[in-house]
Amino acid sequence: MTSRFLPLGLLVMLAACGNRYEYSRASFNGPLQCAPYARERTGLKLSGSAASWWGQSSGRYAHTHTPRPGEVLVFRATSRVPSGHVSIVRRQVSDRTILVDHANWEPGRIDHAVPITDVSARNDWTLVRVWWMPIHGLGKRAYPTYGFISSHDSDDAS
Q1: 48-52, 104-108, 120-124: which range is least confident on average?
Q2: Residue from 72, 104, 69 nearest 86 by CA
Q3: Longest CA–CA separation in the chain, Å
Q4: Where is the Peptidase C51 domain (predicted)?
């Protein structure tokens, strides 16, 4: 009798082993978002989608391709990240790696000291890979960025 239920039991067990880190696009649209988090932490007077921050900040805040603590790395909008993304630089670890704080890279989470590595050909931080906790390593995808926004007024920046 138990041999009749073996196939059903195996199917139930396999279903339970599914990728628990597979997120729907809707799961990224919860109440916790990267842009309000970054605005609150940095004092930048910017609003709207994260990708729009680069254009909004032009002439108001300094833009750079060199990371410094407190600056905001702005990700471009892509099919994977339709509204873009923003991360706050915590510190630089090496020429090509920084640690950032950001919200909602993983849905509903605020993560601190997350590694991001510059993989751009010109070492200008325009293409990066981001640490992905579910695999305990850098994600396989590279994401285009605009660069860094300084929380200082553009007149104050060097």
Answers
A1: 104-108
A2: 72
A3: 80
A4: 9-129
What CA–CA distances, in Å, run from 7 to 3, 4, 15, 87?
A: 8, 7, 12, 47
Q: Which amino acid is at 5?
A: F
Q: pLDDT tens for residues 75-98? A: 999 999 999 999 999 999 999 999
CB 129 within 8 A of CB 114: no
How many whole angstroms separate alpha carbon 124 and alpha carbon 121?
8
CA separation for the pair 102, 105 (Å, rounded): 7
Q: Which amino acid is at 2?
A: T
pLDDT band for position 12 (50/70/90)?
A: very low
For residue 110, give both structure tokens.
Answer: 């605020």
Give me the helices (H) in 17-138, please.
Answer: 34-42, 53-57
